[in-house]
Amino acid sequence: MQENIVTSRYYFDVEKNGEIVRDECGVEAGNVSEIIEQAKLGLEELRETLKLGGSEGWTLVVRDDRNTKLLRLSM
C-alpha cells in the first residue's frame, strides 16, 4: 500500500528595515522538520553569498504558498 505524502511549497525571503528580497522559486517540503532543515541550509548559503551589504541585521523569513509567515531566523 502506498502512503500519500502531501507536500507544500515554502519560500525563503530575507528582510531588513522594511526591505524584502523575495524567494520566487521556493522548495517543496512535506513537514515542519523538512522546512526547518531547508531554512538552515538556506541561511548558511545566504551567509556565504549574500550581496546585500553584509548579512548583519537581515532576517530569513519562511512563508507558505498562502503567504503565511511561519518562521523567522536572524542572520
Report on this structure:
With 75 residues, this protein is an alpha+beta fold. Helix content is 24%, strand content 36%. The chain is built from one helix and five strands; from the N terminus they run βββαββ. Strands 1, 2, 3, 4 and 5 form a five-stranded antiparallel β-sheet that branches.
Distance between the termini: 43 Å
Q: Helicity range of the residues?
A: 10-25%
Tell me the series of helices and strands, N- to C-terminal. EEEHEE
Total of DSSP H or I helical runs spanning 4+ residues: 1
The radius of gyration is 13 Å
What class do helices, strands and sheet pairing give?
alpha+beta
Structural shape: globular
Low-pLDDT residue intervals, each spanning 5 or more residues: none
The profile of the biggest β sheet is:
5 strands, antiparallel
- How much of the residues is beta strand, in percent? 35-45%
On the 0 to 100 scale, the average pLDDT is 80
The tally of beta strands, per DSSP, is: 5
